[in-house]
Specification:
3 domains, 15 helices, 3-stranded antiparallel sheet, single chain, 18 strands, about 500 residues, about 45% helix, globular, Beta Polymerase, domain 2, about 20% strand, alpha+beta
Length: about 500
């Protein structure tokens, strides 16, 4: 929490606690003291780690400890054992303590503070009175035993986990506090569509591993450097991250073009130094890299190239990124032995996303033929999702077969997804044309431009809808009436 947790916390009749940053001498002495006290409290053989700080820090906001524990810890009891003055628990797995800076134990039980958000029917307010005595902030987090090693890796060296996540994101991977994930491209595409698609992240992400050594091996990072030598300087940390085989100038550049990401960098020194200083100096060594001035998001002065030239260069960059992503996804599936899981999830995801796209593409057609809008149009679209079967075989000419289903399908069973085809990849801002839909290729997570979706045999689908929409709607109304009668 950076040392400021108690500045936004309150306890009735108590001052706001002063927890200024600590000098290295105070910090390391206190960390040694409280490591020993924690070990004396915890059961034998409990995994405990004090997280490694970012290199080259001249002062410290708090002490961070991580405990492997599969059940809840009584943090109040723990705080009193440690001799804490105050305790703040934002959630059942985390607590923040204020402890005497000299390492002594408080003579009184720890005072329970609460965050100043809405708590119950009223808002707490931060006390205007600030404690005269200064304290040290101590953060304790409990994690499941099976995730302890990964959490320790992910949270060490300040923003190291965040930097790794930043590097791999646009290549289809996510680094979180639970491990390395493979993110399916269709999930990213769904989030860039101009209308909402009800797809949850877990429907398009596969956990590859939470074994740090295995993840480092896949990323092309040397585990022995991390475990044996560690990093005494930011240069050492950056040089190690620079060995990551997923480090691509195309991917980094695209992510940095997102204004929110640039703002994030500016607020975090480890981030900003890596992207504004270290990486531009090393860019010529990266795949498709080129030198970039500090603070540049593109690495290319726009006044030296025409708009057309910039667009062509951007298109080439996205094409390279898309090809690299496909290659790395295949590598990951093989390396982590996730073929069956990937195929099963991918099939379900594609059907889910395309069913939602089909519903959107059908709306203007159904509105045209029915004259309906708003809720009445939504009812017809729902009826098509439930009562229209789509087959790609059985017609003499091999065309789609559309039929009315007497027995309703669930959303998961809907066959509307069969109506959708990928027409190609369009440049950002290009229209999908009649019966088409274009995703926003500029959105974060993109890599290959905007995907263009269309209806197969749109003219024939329109004629069928014109002839059958009333019958299909009637079946849906009967279904809904049956549900209502069953509730009565």
């Amino acid at each position: 929490m950076g040392g400021g947790a108690f500045s936004q916390a309150s306890a009735e009749g108590q001052p706001t606690l002063s927890t200024p940053r600590m000098s290295p001498d105070v910090y390391f002495k206190l960390k040694e003291t409280y490591t020993a006290r924690l070990r004396s409290y915890l059961p034998p053989n409990t995994h405990l780690a004090s997280l490694t700080e970012a290199p080259e820090k001249t002062d410290y906001g708090d002490m961070d400890f991580m405990i492997a524990h599969d059940d809840r810890i009584n943090f109040t009891d723990l705080a009193n054992h440690l001799g804490a003055v105050a305790i703040l628990c934002p959630d059942p797995q985390t607590c923040t303590l204020a402890v005497p800076k000299d390492g002594s134990r408080s003579a009184n039980p720890a005072v329970v503070y609460k965050q100043v958000h809405v708590t119950g029917p009223r808002k707490l307010k931060v006390s205007a009175e600030v404690s005269e005595e200064e304290y040290a902030q101590m953060d304790i987090e409990t994690v499941p035993t099976q995730l302890f090693e990964w959490h320790t890796f992910y949270a060490s060296y300040g923003d190291m986990g965040g930097l790794l996540g930043y590097i791999v994101h646009n290549l289809g991977f996510t680094v979180s506090d639970r491990g390395l994930w493979l993110r399916m491209e269709e999930l990213d595409d769904a989030k860039r569509l101009p209308y909402p698609v009800n797809v949850a992240d877990q429907d398009g992400r596969i956990l590859l591993s939470h074994d740090p050594a295995q993840v480092m091996q896949f990323l092309g990072l040397r585990p022995e450097v991390y475990y044996e030598a560690g990093f005494q300087t930011l240069e050492g940390l950056y040089a190690w991250l620079g060995e990551c085989r997923l480090l691509s100038w195309d991917a980094i550049k695209l992510k940095r073009e997102n204004s929110s990401e640039r703002n994030r960098e500016q607020k975090r020194t480890v981030f900003s130094r890596f992207f504004n200083e270290w990486l531009p100096a090393q860019a010529h060594l990266l795949p498709n890299g080129h030198p970039a001035p500090p603070g540049s998001a593109t690495g290319s002065p726009p006044d030296k190239a025409t708009t057309e030239g910039l667009a062509l260069r951007a298109a080439a960059s996205r094409a390279r990124l898309a090809a690299k992503r496909a290659e790395l996804v295949a590598d990951a599936i093989h390396f982590f032995a996730k073929q069956h899981e990937f195929e099963t999830m991918h099939t379900a995801l594609v059907r889910n996303v395309r069913s939602a796209i089909a519903a959107q593409l059908l709306k203007p057609i159904l509105a045209l033929h029915s004259g309906k809008t708003n809720k009445n149009l939504t009812e017809i679209v729902r009826a098509f999702r439930r009562h229209v079967g789509i087959g790609e075989q059985g017609q003499p000419d091999g065309r789609l077969r559309l039929e009315i289903l007497e027995r309703a399908r669930t959303d998961a069973q809907s066959e509307l997804w069969r109506l959708v085809e990928v027409d190609g990849v369009a440049a950002a801002g290009e229209s999908g044309g009649q019966g088409g839909c274009v995703g926003d290729g500029e959105a974060d997570g993109g890599g290959g431009g905007a995907v263009v979706y269309g209806l197969k045999e749109a003219g024939r689908v329109s004629e069928w809808a014109k002839e059958h929409w009333e019958e299909v709607r009637g079946l849906e109304r009967l279904r809904m009436k049956g549900l209502a009668d069953g509730r009565d």
